[in-house]
Amino acid sequence: MEQVIILSEWWKSDTEAVINEALKSGLAPNVSDAHTINGHPGPVQGCKSQEGFKLDVQPGNTYLLRIINAALNEELFFKIAGHELTVVEVDAVYTKPFKTDTIVIAPGQTTNVLLTTKHSAGKYLVAASPFMDAPIAVDNNTATATLHYSGTLSSTLTTLTSIPPTNSTLLATTFTDSLRSLNSKKYPARVPLKIDHNLLFTVSLGINPCATCVNNSRVVADINNITFVMPKISLLQAHFFKIKGVFTDDFPGNPPVFYNFTGTQPSNLNTKNGTRLYRLAYNSTVQLVLQDTGMITPENHPIHLHGFNFFVVGRGQGNFNPTKDPKKFNLVDPVERNTVGVPSGGWTAIRFRADNPGVWFMHCHLEIHTTWGLKMAFVVDNGKGPNESLLPPPSDLPKC
Hints:
- There is one protein chain.
- The protein contains 4 helices and 25 strands.
- By secondary structure, the chain is mainly beta.
- The chain has 2 domains: 2-177, Immunoglobulin-like; 197-384, Cupredoxins -  blue copper proteins (Immunoglobulin-like, Sandwich).
- A 6-stranded mixed sheet has the order 2-1-4-9-6-7, with no helix packed on it.
């Protein structure tokens, strides 16, 4: 049997209104009022649904839990009291199985685990709580549910579990470092070894002038100091029909200025606005190092790439060292996924092959960061012949 587990956030106000109010003020949005597991926060004072979500199980069976982080702005820990979880898949790609009592999952990520139940009845607490190892406000409410064995008496007390401290960096790092691709004959890890594009992207926050905002300034976000500006028409249409003036393909492959990214922040926190893309030839290979910075504050950024899976070949704390760090890359069985966390005050290196023609966004999966402009796009040119070329849009495609 299998069960989908959706972890999320809940606000007392409409989320669009929360985001719009933040944009109007130029400040960060209010944190959520609750976390939820399959739509229920668990026992919360003043909430009509006191019990929360209940996962019914039979003793002595194995269940596949498909866990999804659908939260807007927070990474989450997930655990079940008295039970180990066997991780077998992330972002729809098999992993080497390993056991853990706690997983960490970022917005936009999925994790599939096997849960083997005990041979006796009982009730066990299921918990989802925030992970944040930077000085940033989070919703500290823990969402709870119940793992409920058949035959358990209603009077049976629920077995509880301890909640990880919010700033449990070691726990999160240990989990992340345990992820490995199967790299079997049936499921090989085809890691690009020869690299055509060697890129370094800083992921940052910034502050730009805003006459109508609080403090006459607005918090923004950027990649390589460029805050992305959404175009008036679809980038894919502009690319396919060669419409001029919609975007430029001059996104920089490196930061405009090199400094101690994870040290003292520069005095100038302004960014440049632009709709700038990075162009890739079909089937070219990319190594991309995503570097967090201390601009305003360091933070763990879950970065999602559309159109491709990638291999996470390395990660570390501090500034990426292009001479020393690649020597420690895992090019044998790195985990393959489509959303990766860039650690607070650190870096992550990914590799992928650009074998999917079109225009593909890459963005932070913290909703407010994407809204603030922490995104860019790759434009991948056609290859040879129809099988390596972008299909034309359907005749009834609605106008953007």
